[in-house]
Design a protein that fits this description.
single chain, two-stranded antiparallel sheet, about 280 residues
């Protein structure tokens, strides 16, 4: 029998399944799909059972099954085997959905933050009651003694953050003790901090709490380190005029950084510290 009249060629199969002829040849070279015969004209011909094998291969590739696993399965086909691969793909899909939801939430937060930048009042000290806030912190109280550079310390903190959650939409900043800040020890970082997620959310856990209370805030243009002296001068005038006393740590956050600005001079930084009224 002339197989060229009864068996479809690789080209015809490629058109039938909307794949390239090179894909079929790749499966042949991988040992997954061998042609029934190769004609004198060099054409490859395939039987109906081989088309069934191709359909199995295409399905398994659609669910991202590696070639080596497909090859093993074709030698030991079973309902249990295909169900196990389907179950794995379902779990992968569920995990991807979780990651996509986290990413979407992060994108919404970043969009909201960047859109609010033009409305931020610069160089004005604000007074506001703030609730308790859970944060994830990495302590560096002795950073200067250990001679850990600022960027290295931040990298250590961010490595911990991303090991605990895939996407983090909250800003990362740092704290300085009020005594060090008032003493112009602006590089004496106490800890790096990132706002934690809500309990049981599966996100970033909290290991540090910013206490509730009355806080003074100021937004300045420039990096946190460069603008610390400017923020301190603004705070001091406001505290003296309103008979307030700083208490606890100062919280420094880059509200706008390299994502939205070409140079550090264009950054927007925030400083906040709790205050009390002396008795």
């Amino acid at each position: 029998m002339d197989k060229s009249k009864t068996y479809p060629t690789a080209g015809k199969i490629a058109r039938l399944y909307n794949i390239s002829k090179q894909t079929i040849i790749f499966y042949e070279k991988s040992g997954l799909l061998m042609p029934a015969c190769i004609g004198d004209n060099g054409y490859r011909y395939y039987t109906e059972s081989q088309l069934h094998t191709l359909e199995t291969i295409l399905f398994l590739r659609e669910i991202n099954t590696p070639i080596a696993i497909i090859k093993q399965y074709l030698y030991h086909q079973s309902a249990d085997g295909i169900l196990a691969m389907i179950e794995k793909k379902k779990e992968d899909c569920l995990q991807q959905i979780i990651r996509d939801k986290e990413l979407l939430h992060a994108l919404h937060h970043c969009e909201k933050l960047i859109s609010s930048l033009p409305q931020m009042p610069l160089d004005c000290v604000l007074l506001q009651e703030m609730p308790e806030c859970s944060m994830f912190a990495t302590s560096f109280e002795n950073m200067e003694n250990k001679k850990i550079p600022f960027t290295k310390a931040r990298s250590i903190h961010m490595e911990k953050v991303y090991s605990l959650c895939s996407y983090k939409d909250q800003l990362t900043g740092y704290t300085i003790s009020s005594n060090d800040f008032l003493g112009h020890q602006f590089s004496k970082i106490k800890r790096f901090i990132t706002k934690a997620d809500t309990p049981h959310s599966g996100g970033l856990p909290g290991n540090f709490t910013r206490p509730a209370g009355l806080y003074t805030f100021i937004y300045t243009k420039g990096s946190c380190i460069e603008q610390s002296i400017h923020a301190l001068e603004g705070f001091r005038r406001f505290w003296e005029n309103n008979q307030l006393v700083p208490q606890g740590d100062i919280y420094c956050f880059p509200v706008s950084n390299h994502w939205t600005a070409k140079s550090q001079k264009e950054y927007i930084s925030s400083f906040a510290i709790r205050v009390i009224t002396p008795e």
